[in-house]
Request: fold
Amino acid sequence: MYYAAANGLAEAFNKTLCNLLKKVVTKSKRDWDERIGEALWAYRTTIRTPTQATPYALVYRVETVLPLEQQIPSLRIAIQEGLTEE
Reply:
């Protein structure tokens, strides 16, 4: 069956994904399959204007913890993990 609204959303997402991949692949464009994870991570962790939230936060109900925040402790991570001052 054809659902115009759903197909329109899929087309819009595919266009966005293609644009993200264009930014992260090398000039040879042969490593897109290795870089798709990075492109999806960027999409899922970017705040969307209509919802004022990231897709990740809407699905999991928590904010994204960036890999950098794992290496450099932040107050938000300490609170989220329930750590004390000690």
The chain has a mean pLDDT of 83. The first helix runs from residue 4 to 24. Helices lie at 4-24, 32-44, 55-60, 67-71, 75-81.
